Amino acid sequence: MVSGTMAPRLVLLLLLLGSHLRPGSAVDSDSREGESRLYTAVIEVPNGGPWGDWAWPEMCPDGFFASGFSLKVGAPQGIPGDDTALNGVLLHCARGNAELNTHVVESQSGRWGAWSEPLWCLDGGFLTSFSLRVEDSRTPGDNTAANNVRFRCSGGEELEGPGLEWGEFGSWSDSCPKGVCDLQTKQEAPRGLRDDTALNDLRLFCCSS
């Protein structure tokens, strides 16, 4: 039994705890839980696939920006196989010399496929925007959702990943003023004997320092 003097204190403690555990409060804040670095903007594209859920975001260390990327791609499975195409994206974060000072970040990735070799921006540049290649829904049929990604660098060059060729590239996202520092993927969980699509959409975050 809680004494009369302890009851108000217990109620107050529960209210305080509840105020810090509101759904989405940590993710929506510019200073996310466990991260001291601030992001300045979120860049997205309008043509992402419809299946799955957003996974956790992963941020480059303080002072690092994404200078390159790798893709995890499931090879074509033929008939009657189940194609998943793009399964994951790695950002290669750099500060200074990209060959010697890098850090890799990954949001959730699908289980199928193999990772490609990194593609890098020239002259120490950073990734600033992206475009996603997505196959339209095929119902009934073998859906793949996201197939490939293009990135634009701060020096103006474009890098196209070694993904598959189903679907079309959509419009470019907005551009980060300095560079990309964080990514988040939308993944469909494995569905057993039913159709799998793996990665459906991508979201990137901009930092200024």
TrEMBL record:
One Pfam family of this chain: VOMI
One Gene Ontology cellular component annotation held by this UniProt entry: extracellular space
Localization per Swiss-Prot or TrEMBL: Secreted
UniProt cross-references to InterPro entries, sorted A to Z: VOMI (IPR005515), VOMI_sf (IPR036706)
UniProt keyword annotation of Disulfide bond present: yes
Domain of life where this protein originates: Eukaryota
Chief location: secreted
SUPFAM superfamilies (alphabetical): Vitelline membrane outer protein-I (VMO-I)
Signal peptide: 1-26
UniProt keywords, alphabetically: Disulfide bond, Secreted, Signal
Similarity-based family: Belongs to the VMO1 family.
The name this protein goes by in its record: Vitelline membrane outer layer protein 1 homolog
The species this protein was found in: Phascolarctos cinereus (Koala)
Taxonomic path: Eukaryota, Metazoa, Chordata, Craniata, Vertebrata
